[in-house]
């Protein structure tokens, strides 16, 4: 049609031009006029074509609505694409820095290792970026396009391209999503290889680069080990979402490496280049000196080579010939080392044998020193072999000895410095080691000398006393009895007396050690210690106490610094195949009744009983009672009536109460303590206090069971009865469980929590989150049926009444998620064809209208758990429809005057709705709706409640239109139209 219209326009233009009157001027003016008319006609035709095209396109567009805000799925698509684009930019920046580093490293010697490892690292980045793009394109198909399969990932390097033959197969360009663990492990190896090649330059070492790359290697190996558990599930949306969430953690590492590499290029490369140039100059100078010295040695050999008569002559020739050999070897090895340092295509140092490196680096100087030493000794012997004068021989010998001694001492100093530095890792220097060794030697010599003097004195005094005792025995006896100080003298060798003295000292020290505070006890012993001995023991005890105190102080664990991480699950949650627009017919039905009814929720009573934070609260299944737990070490049971009243106060002697749990019959109540569980009756009588050896993180009753419950303790779930007996135990491997839920049939346990360690035993770095997961455990077969990774910190898990829906609560800013648990045929169990296994599928993420700090667990509410409610720390409450994730009602923080800590729904009260919230100041707020008249229409109910419909996207209320005259059916239709425009 457009072509026909254009043809007609051109035909009309030509006809108008041909039908000009004859009086019109001809020639150049006529040609200009004709061209102008043709251009104007063409412009008109193009304008009409563009108008018709715009009309045709507008006809294909969907009709515009009054509120053109993006839907939840559209927001998720936008947020997901922005996250991936940010990650892609980070990868490109790292690739750019690696390319710049390769160009800068070409100026350095021995750069082939760093060039090759850098290129392999770039290849790995390209493969990972392709896998992440494919993963993101699956999750966000409307915002991210896939990379063409025929496009190569990265071009081959110049030397690998030249050496490739036609018979060699090309590597697989595009990896499969199932290769994510292998790619992460390979990425870790490439990072380590690049770091080792980077450390081959001893002239400059950047600790920031080493630290960042080592942390990245640790995290990559940790993720690779964790992802091995999900083999065969990398096309499932839950695993794809988790992999996409890892881009934030990987991006942080990549940013650190990029910045550190940039600093290395700017500072490290010039420093390395200068150091290598300086080392090359030293080797060149060494080669020059060795060459000159070899000439000198060869010249002197002409004087002694013919002297072969005696021993001195032969010794002179032997030393000088050895000096010539060493000097030539020093010159040649210097040139070899110079060539080695300046060579580009050589193996990195960690791939070369140690003796080759020592020979290249150390042999030139060692050979030159040996050459000088041999020449000096030969010169000294030459003076005696040629019978030079006495003065000449003496002076030559003295000067040779002095220079050789200095050369030997300095050489030994150099070697010792190197050994001490390697031995003590640079903590002490050679001078410190010499001083310490000298001090030890002098101390040892002094101790030995003093010991010998003491032994000699004792021996002399003992001999003197023996002589005196032989001459004056009666006088010695009287003096000893009078003073009671001299021991009885026994005849025998002096060594017996010395050993006896040593035994006395040992016993005194032992007695003081056993009772250091009792000096009188020491006096009662057979041997009374002297005051210096007691003072010495006190000093030793004080020193020992100070050392213990310092060790205890140094051993205090330090709290790791919390580094904020990018929170991504708040932007995820809907299936990529979910339509972005909601069918208008879906709003018809219960939602039209729920919205006005929820909007009448208001606080009707404040219960100020507790004096500290409300940790948890729960309505009984019968709806008669409300139990609360507080950090004031008390729990209160309220009677649910028109006006709530205190039914019983449960006082706990010690320990904070973390949770309350009602049994199905509402006759028993469990209160969870840090290391125990108390069983109470509905009247507040404590039936049993169950002490547990481990910390209890959650308690859950078995379905339809009044005597058994589960206790979550670390990685184990214990089945207990109300008397505290352990009936069974279920082990969840290396998962630190936070909470569990039981399916209504009592066959499966669903648990949430972080991993204690990866399957290979590795832990992430301090800046990286540990992996969290949701586990489905079959209690009959004692097997894990499903394990799904999640990125954010999980808090709580709840199963709906019918068991098909699972609600997961997270910490802080992450909104709750709804997972669908489906039972599928177990293909692994070939013996039982009817065996089924559970599988979790993410259905919705309940997005708030703004960023919210969520507190407490989320709950199901309404009839048949059709609602999902969650509280915010600021005092706001969100209520969503479970199956559509549409926000039905939002209670603003201004309507409530305190910080919330938890929320609970009364499931037994469908009319009116009732919920309770706890706060930081210990107040419990009761929320309730007025009685709902089911026969009244929606419009009359709105008028009765005096409420206006509030748009969930705009904060300002929309005024209620006047009532429409006519039948109630028309009135309901008008109200339904208002709700459709507002919430559709």
CATH topology call of the largest domain: Methylamine Dehydrogenase, Chain H
Give the integer mean of the pLDDT values: 75
| Tally of helical segments | 19
Largest sheet: 4 strands, antiparallel
- Low-pLDDT ranges: 1-30, 52-68, 152-172, 479-529, 553-588, 934-984
What count of structural domains? 6
Please name the CATH architecture of the largest domain: 7 Propeller
Structural class: alpha+beta
Q: Which of globular, elongated, flat, extended, rod-shaped describes the shape?
A: elongated
Helical content class: 40-55%
Task: Count every beta strand, where a strand is a DSSP E run of 2 or more residues.
Answer: 28
Top-tier CATH class of the largest domain: Mainly Beta
Work out the radius of gyration. 45 Å
The share of residues in extended strands comes to 15-25%
Strands of the biggest beta sheet: in what spatial order?
1-28-27-26
Measured between the Cα atoms of the first and last residue, the distance is 39 Å
CATH superfamily of the largest domain: YVTN repeat-like/Quinoprotein amine dehydrogenase
């Amino acid at each position: 049609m457009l072509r026909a219209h254009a043809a007609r326009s051109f035909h009309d233009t030509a006809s108008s031009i041909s039908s000009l009157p004859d009086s019109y001027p001809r020639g150049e003016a006529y040609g200009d006029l004709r061209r102008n008319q043709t251009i104007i006609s063409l412009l008109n035709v193009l304008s009409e074509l563009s108008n018709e095209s715009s009309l045709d396109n507008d006809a294909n567009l969907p009709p515009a609505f009054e509120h053109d805000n993006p839907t939840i799925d559209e927001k998720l698509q936008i947020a997901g694409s922005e996250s991936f684009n940010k990650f892609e930019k980070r990868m490109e920046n790292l690739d750019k820095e690696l390319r710049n580093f390769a160009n800068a490293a070409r100026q350095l010697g021995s750069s082939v290792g760093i060039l090759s490892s850098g290129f392999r690292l770039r290849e790995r980045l390209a493969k990972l970026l392709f896998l992440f793009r494919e993963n993101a394109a699956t999750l966000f198909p409307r915002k991210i396009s896939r990379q063409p399969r025929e496009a190569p990932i990265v071009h081959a390097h110049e030397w690998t391209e030249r050496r490739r033959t036609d018979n060699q197969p090309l590597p697989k360009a595009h990896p499969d999503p199932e290769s994510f663990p292998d790619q992460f492990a390979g990425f870790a190896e490439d990072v380590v290889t690049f770091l080792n090649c980077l450390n081959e330059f001893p002239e400059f070492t950047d600790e920031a680069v080493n630290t960042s790359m080592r942390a990245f290697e640790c995290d990559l190996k940790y993720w690779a080990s964790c992802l091995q558990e999900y083999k065969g599930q990398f096309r499932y949306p839950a695993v794809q979402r988790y992999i996409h969430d890892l881009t934030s953690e990987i991006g942080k590492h990549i940013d650190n490496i990029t910045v550190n590499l940039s600093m290395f290029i700017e500072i490290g490369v010039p420093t390395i280049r200068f150091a290598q140039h300086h080392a090359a100059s030293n080797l060149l100078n060494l080669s020059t000196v060795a060459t000159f010295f070899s000439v000198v040695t060869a010249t002197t050999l002409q004087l002694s080579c013919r002297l072969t008569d005696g021993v001195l002559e032969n010794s002179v020739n032997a030393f000088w010939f050895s000096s010539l050999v060493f000097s030539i070897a020093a010159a040649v090895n210097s040139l070899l080392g110079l060539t080695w340092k300046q060579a580009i295509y050589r193996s990195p140092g960690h791939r070369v044998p140690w003796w080759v490196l020592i020979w290249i680096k150390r042999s030139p100087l060692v050979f030159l020193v040996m050459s000088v030493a041999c020449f000096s000794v030969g010169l000294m012997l030459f003076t005696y072999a040629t019978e030079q004068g006495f003065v000449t021989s003496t002076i030559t010998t003295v000067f040779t000895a002095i220079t050789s001694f200095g050369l030997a001492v300095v050489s030994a100093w150099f070697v010792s410095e190197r050994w001490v530095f390697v031995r003590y890792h640079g903590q002490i220097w050679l001078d410190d080691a010499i001083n310490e060794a000298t001090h030890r030697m002098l101390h040892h010599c002094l101790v030995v000398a003093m010991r010998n003097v003491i032994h000699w004195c004792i021996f002399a005094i003992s001999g003197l006393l023996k002589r005196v005792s032989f001459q004056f025995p009666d006088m010695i006896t009287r003096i000893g009895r009078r003073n009671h100080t001299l021991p009885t003298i026994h005849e025998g060798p002096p060594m017996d007396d010395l050993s006896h003295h040593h035994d006395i000292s040992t016993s005194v020290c032992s007695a003081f050690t056993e009772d250091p505070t009792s000096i009188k006890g020491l006096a009662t012993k057979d041997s009374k210690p002297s005051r210096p001995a007691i003072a010495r023991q006190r000093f030793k005890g004080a020193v020992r106490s100070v050392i213990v105190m310092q060790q205890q102080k140094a051993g205090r664990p330090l709290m790791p610094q919390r580094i904020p991480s990018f929170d991504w699950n708040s932007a995820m949650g809907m299936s990529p195949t979910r339509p972005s627009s909601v069918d208008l017919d879906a709003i018809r039905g219960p939602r039209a009744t729920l919205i006005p009814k929820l909007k009448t929720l208001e606080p009707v009573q404040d219960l100020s009983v507790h004096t500290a934070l409300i940790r948890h609260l729960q309505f009984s299944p019968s709806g008669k009672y409300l139990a609360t737990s507080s950090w004031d070490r008390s729990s209160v049971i309220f009677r649910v009536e028109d006006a709530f009243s205190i039914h019983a106060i449960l006082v706990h002697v010690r320990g904070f109460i973390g949770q309350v749990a009602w049994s199905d019959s509402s006759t028993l109540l469990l209160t969870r303590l840090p290391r125990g569980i108390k069983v109470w009756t509905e009247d507040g009588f404590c039936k049993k206090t169950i002490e547990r050896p481990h910390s209890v993180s959650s308690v859950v009753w078995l379905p339809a069971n009044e005597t058994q419950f589960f206790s979550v303790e670390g990685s184990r779930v214990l089945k207990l009865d109300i008397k505290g007996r352990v009936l069974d135990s279920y082990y969840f491997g290396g998962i630190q469980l936070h909470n569990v839920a039981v399916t209504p049939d009592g066959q499966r346990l669903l648990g949430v929590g972080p991993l204690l360690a990866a399957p290979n035993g590795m832990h992430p770095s301090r800046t990286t989150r540990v992996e969290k997961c949701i586990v489905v455990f079959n209690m009959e077969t004692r097997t894990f049926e499903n394990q799904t990774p999640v990125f954010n910190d999980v808090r709580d898990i709840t199963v709906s009444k019918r068991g098909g829906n699972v609600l997961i609560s997270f910490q802080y800013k992450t909104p709750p998620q709804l997972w669908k648990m489906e039972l599928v045929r177990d293909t692994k169990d070939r013996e039982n064809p009817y065996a089924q296994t559970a599988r979790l599928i993410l259905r919705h993420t309940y997005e708030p209208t703004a960023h919210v700090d969520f507190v407490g667990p989320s709950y199901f509410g309404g009839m048949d758990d059709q609602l999902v409610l969650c509280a915010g720390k600021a005092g706001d409450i969100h209520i969503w429809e479970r199956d559509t994730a549409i926000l039905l009602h939002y209670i603003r923080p201004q309507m409530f005057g305190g910080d919330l800590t938890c929320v609970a729904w009364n499931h037994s009260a469908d009319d009116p709705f009732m919920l309770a919230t706890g706060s930081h100041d210990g107040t419990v707020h009761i929320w309730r709706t007025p009685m709902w008249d089911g026969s009244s229409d929606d419009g009359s109910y709105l008028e009765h409640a005096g409420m206006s419909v509030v748009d969930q996207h705009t904060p300002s209320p929309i005024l209620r239109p006047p009532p429409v005259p006519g039948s109630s059916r028309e009135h309901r239709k008008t109200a339904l139209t208002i709700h459709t425009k507002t919430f559709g």
